[in-house]
Amino acid sequence: VTARVGAGTFVSAHAPPARDRPDGHRASGLLRPRPVWGSIDPPTAFARAAEFDFRTGLPDSSLFPFETWRRLMVRQLDRAAVGTGAYADPAGHPDLRAAVARQVGLSRGIPASPDDVVITNGTQQALDLVARVLLAPGDRVAVEDPGYEPPRLLFRSLGARVVGVPVDGRGLVVEALPADARLVYVTPSHQYPLGTTMALERRLALLDWARRHRAALVEDDYDSEFRFGGRPLEPLQTLDTAGVVVYVGSFSKTLLPTLRLGFLVVPRALRDAVHRAKYVTDWHTSLPVQAALARFIDDGDFARHLRRANARYRTRHDLLVRVLSRDFAGHLEVVPSAAGLHVSALVRRATAGQLDAVVARAADAGVAVQQLAWFALAPPARPGLVLGYGAIPAGRIEEGLRRLRASFP
Amino acid sequence: VTARVGAGTFVSAHAPPARDRPDGHRASGLLRPRPVWGSIDPPTAFARAAEFDFRTGLPDSSLFPFETWRRLMVRQLDRAAVGTGAYADPAGHPDLRAAVARQVGLSRGIPASPDDVVITNGTQQALDLVARVLLAPGDRVAVEDPGYEPPRLLFRSLGARVVGVPVDGRGLVVEALPADARLVYVTPSHQYPLGTTMALERRLALLDWARRHRAALVEDDYDSEFRFGGRPLEPLQTLDTAGVVVYVGSFSKTLLPTLRLGFLVVPRALRDAVHRAKYVTDWHTSLPVQAALARFIDDGDFARHLRRANARYRTRHDLLVRVLSRDFAGHLEVVPSAAGLHVSALVRRATAGQLDAVVARAADAGVAVQQLAWFALAPPARPGLVLGYGAIPAGRIEEGLRRLRASFP
Q1: Do B26 and A77 touch (CB under 8 A)?
Q2: How far does A328 lie from chain B, in Å, by closest CA?
Q3: CB-based contact (8 Å) between B138 and chain A?
Q4: Is B28 within 8 Å of B63 (Cβ atoms)?
C-alpha cells in the first residue's frame, strides 16, 4: 500500500506486464520523452479502499443519485441533444454554462454571465487551460505549501518554475510571494490540506499584490459547497476589481470524480484564448454528460442533492472533530475548519518523530490516514495528519479513530 | 455562412454579447493571454447544416444506435462501474483498453496489447498528449499540405514551428521532409483532405526516414474503418520495427464526435510519459462513457454498427463518384479513393479561377462544399473541391450535385 498523495487517489495505473512482441527491439524504440516527464511522478496512492477510509479528496459515492442520472442520461442520449453529427462549442453546452452561471451566482455570490463560464474535464483541465493561456516556459508559479500536488506537476510539466509559499492560520502568506510570480494558485475557501479559510484582509492583500504585479490568481474552490457553520467569505473572484482572478469549480466532490466535470469563470480578456486552448486541447467536453448535468441543475436536483449531502457530511465532520478533540488531546491539535470534506490536525511535539510509525501501525489496523508531510513542497514539513470523511460513513468513524488512537505510543 | 475548415465543423462559439457588469473595468482586466493565442484561430465553420450538406468530417448521426447506447449507459451508471468515489486510471478503463486492443488487432492488423492503449478525448487530445511528451518549444513539426488544420493549431500553440510538406498521388513526399523535424503528422490510410492512400514504398521510405532521424511518426487513422474495395495497406504502426510510430484512432467518425472518444497505441518507451501527460492534463477520460463503449465493442454491437454504416457510406461514395465522373467531366477530376467519408476532386484549369464564385453560388442554392484551398498551409493551393458524404443521405446526393453543377459557369 503506497500512499503519496495530495491528489485524491486513484487505483494504480500499473497493469500486469504486457505480452512482449516477437520483435523485441520495439519494446524500447528510438523515441524518448522530454526529460521533464521523468520527474512528473503521479501518486500511485492506495490500490484499494481501506476498512476505515479517512483518505481525502473523495466524495461518498453512495450519496450520488444514480437513478436520477440514469433517467437524465437516457433523455439526453438522443439525436436532437447530442447527435447532430457536428462538433460542439469548445466553451461548453449552452444550457450547462447558463446553469453554472446561475449556480455560482446563488451559492457563491459570483456575478457570472454564461459567457464567462467554460466547461472543463474537471479542475485539472481547468488549470491546464489557464496555464497554457498564461504561462511561458520558465515563468514562475507560486503555490501553497503545503498544497495540492497535481497542479504542481502540471505547471512543472509545462516548464514553469514552481515555488512554494507558506500558509499560516489566516491563509497564504502574501508577503512571502516572489515578486516575479506570473500565476498564484490558491484554495482560499478551504485550504488544501490544512482546512483553514483565508482571512478577508489576506484576500484583499493578495488581490492588491496581484494587481500591482499583474499576476493571475487562480482560485480553486474545490469543495466549498459543503459548509457547516458561519457565513462563507466572499470568493476572490467576487472581491476582484482588476480582472486578475480565474475561478475554478468542480463537480468531482459534489457529484463523482469519474464524471470529470468542472468549470472556469474567466475574466473577459482571457475568454477567447481559453476557448481556443480548449479547442486545440480536446475540442470540447463530452456532450451527453454536459447535457445531463444541465438538466440536473435546472430541475433542482443538484440543490436537493447538495442539501442531503451537506447534512450527511456535517454529521461526520462534527463527530470526527469531537472525537479528535476528546481522545487525541495529548497528541493532536485540530485545525479549525467549517467546510469541505476533510480536517487536518497538527501533531504535538512529543509524538512528531513517531508519525511514520503511527501511520504504518494504523494502516496495519485497516485505517488509512494521510500525513501533512505528503502535501509539502519543501522540508521541513509540519508534522500532522489529514483526515477525510467523504469516503467513510459516520458509523465507522468512532471505531476507525479508536484504532488510530491505539496506533499512537 | 463562414467556411474555414480542415476541421470538421462546429457551431460558432460566438454567443450573444454578455451582459456588461456594472464595474466596466473588469471587462478588460489586467491579464493578457500569451501572444501565440492571437494567431490560433479556430474555424467558425457553418453555423448550421446546409440543405445539401457535403461538409467533411461528419458522420451520419442517424446511423448511431441510440437505443443500444441508452441501455448501456443505464447499465454502466451504477456504483460498481463508475462510483467507487475514487479517480480512475489515466490510461483508461481496463475493459475499454482491452476491447480497443482486440479491435485494432482484428480490423487493422495492429498487434497491440491493452497496455499499449491509452484512451483519450478524441484525436485532438491524443495529439496533444503526444506533442506534450515529445516536443519542446521551437521544435519543428512536419504536416501534410494540404492537411487537417486542428493539429497545426495545436502544435503552434505549444511553440512548435509547423512546416507543410507536399502530398502527391502516392502520399506525403518523403524527400521534402525537413531534416530537423521531430514529429511528422500523417494520414496514410486516407489522406485528409485529398483522399489518397499512401503507397507501400512511400510508407517504407517514411519509416526509414523517421528511423534515421529519430523522429516520431504520428499516424492518424481517423476514418479507415470505412472501406469500399481493395485490401487496406498495412498501417505504419504495423510496418514499424523501430518503435517510431504513434497510432491515433478515433470514435468520432464511427460513432459520434460529441462523445469525444479516441485512443493512442503508444510505443513502450513513451508509455509512462503519456500516462503522466494524461494525468496532469485532465486525470482521465469520463468513466461512464468509457465503460459503455467497452461493452458496445465486447457485445459485438460495434462490429454490427460498422457493417451497417459501411454499407450505407459505400452507396453514397459510389453514387457521388459516379455522378461527379459523369456530369462534371469538363470541370472536375475525381481523386481515386476507396475509404472514408469524403472524396476530393481537382478543378480543371479552365474553371480554376472561378472556384470562389462557384462555391458561393452553390451555397446560395443550399449546397455546402469545401475547397481544397481551405486545407492548404502555403499558397499556391491546388484548386479543387472536397465532398463529404457523412452528413448527406444518398437520396439527396443527385439533386445536390445537380445544383452544384449549375453553379459552374
Answers
A1: no
A2: 28
A3: no
A4: no
Distance of CA B201 to the CA centre of its chain: 24
Render pLDDT for A376-404 as a digit per residue (tens, 0 to 9). Answer: 998 888 899 999 999 999 999 999 999 99
A14, A30, A182, A183: best to mutate for the B interface, most B CBs within 10 A: A30
Note the Cα A42 to chain centre separation in Å.
Answer: 15
CB proximity B179 to A under 8 Å: no
Q: How many CB pairs under 8 A join A and B?
A: 364
Q: Is B393 on the interface with A (CB under 8 A)?
A: no
Q: Is B121 on the interface with A (CB under 8 A)?
A: yes
pLDDT one digit per residue (tens) for chain A, 409 residues: 233 433 333 333 333 333 444 444 445 689 999 999 999 987 665 446 789 999 998 899 899 999 999 999 888 888 777 666 678 899 999 999 999 999 999 999 999 999 999 999 999 999 999 999 999 999 999 999 999 999 999 999 999 999 999 999 999 999 999 999 999 999 999 999 999 999 999 999 999 999 999 999 999 999 989 999 878 899 999 999 999 999 999 999 999 999 999 999 999 999 999 999 999 999 999 999 999 999 999 999 999 999 999 999 999 999 999 999 999 999 999 999 889 999 999 998 777 789 999 999 999 999 999 999 999 998 888 899 999 999 999 999 999 999 999 999 8
- Collapsing DSSP states into helix, strand and coil, what is residue B332? strand
Which phi and psi angles does A28 have, rounded to 5°?
-90, -65
Which residue from B356, B372, B370, B348 is spatially nearest to B407, judged by alpha carbons? B356
A 15-74 → B contacts, CB under 8 A: 15, 17-19, 21, 23, 25-34, 37-38, 40-42, 49, 58-62, 64, 66, 69-70, 73-74
- The amino acid at residue B310 is N
What would the pLDDT profile of A275-303 be if each residue is shown by its tens digit? 999 999 999 999 999 999 999 999 999 99
> In chain A, which residues have their Cβ closer than 8 Å to the Cβ of B27?
243, 268
**Model ipTM value:** 0.93
CB contact under 8 A, B84 and A61: yes
CA-based nearest residue to A359, from A376, A337, A384? A384
Sequence-ordered list of residues with C-beta below 8 angstroms from that of B216, at least 6 positions apart, any chain: A31, B130, B134, B182, B183, B184, B210, B244, B245, B246
Hey, what's the cell of A400?
A: 476507525
Residue B31 is nearest to which of A62, A125, A244, comparing CB atoms?
A: A244
